[in-house]
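Re: beginner question about structure tokens

> Can someone show what the tokenized structure looks like for a real chain? I only ever see the sequence side.

Sure, here's an example I had lying around. Input first:
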Amino acid sequence: MSMSMLSSGRAAVAVVSLGLAACTALAQAAPATVDAAPAAVEQRSIGEWLTRMHDASRKRAYTGTFVVSSEAMLASARIWHACEGEQQIERVDALTGPPRTTFRRNDHVVTFLQDSKVARMEKREALGLFPNLLQAADTSIAEFYGAKRLGQDRVAGFEADIVLLKPKDKLRFGYRVWSEKKSGLVIKLQTLDVDGKVLEQAAFSELQIDAPVRLDSLARMMNKTAGYRTERVETLVADPAAEGWALSEPVPGFRSMSCIKRAPQPGMPPSTMQWVFSDGLASVSLFVEPYDAQRHLKEGLVGMGATQSLMRRSEDWWLTAVGEVPVATLKSFAAALQRTRK
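And the corresponding structure tokens:
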């Protein structure tokens, strides 16, 4: 399984190191304040909050530097986002670590790996990247999360509403969200475990909203592959039932969103199937491939920030479940996944 398929976290494309100064700046952040907000703001439903945040991430041009931190890592990236009608394009530069630039235009993604001079092209429904919080338009979100405005704060020089998205069960994490007051753009996001502890934080350290970022200019950069060896990652839409897989029972709140496989390669073993589920905010990917004793050495659990992974053998198959959800949720998916044919 390739690492690009495992990039399910919202900040996965920006996992790079930062220096001690950034750590200090984050640690010294001022506390939030409680304010007397207009009644209309206080009474917004979770659907109204999420729609406002989602629209801002798709309908506003912006550029900035965002920082991702957890106990295990501290990382940053630079982002440029432009839009024109339904057309979306963005560029994300990893600031330290292996140099890498990722462009996305709608569902077309090109990743430039500067060290190897490789430009990797593929189709993906989304990068799952901060600040786009909403993973899917799902009217059932209110069944599993509640929303409460906590107050206001300043982030990267912008006034923001602080909104708590609290889960109603133990199968999903909560979120504390800083939404820029005028636009609704998410400018800071904390993922909270079932006890309310911060697992991971993503925040803009510098931001310009309605920046002069041109869609055509980013598109030209995306197409400039001269000097790079291009690799096309071909994926095919897959049907879990046709592949011989099903869930014996659904995991509450999570709906099947997509299923893909890499296009078959001559002389290569069958490719990994990726089956994606979402509850509208959190997502889980189930990667299923034939068991290989030389590669699949150890079952277990791995966690980094909010992203949890479960590896398990099931007879002749190997399952890797990845998601920004509690381990119990991954175990529920693993227990429900069944082979329906030999």
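Each token stands for a local structural state, so reading them left to right follows the chain. The domain at 12-223 is CATH 2.50.20.10 (outer membrane lipoprotein receptor (LolB), chain A).
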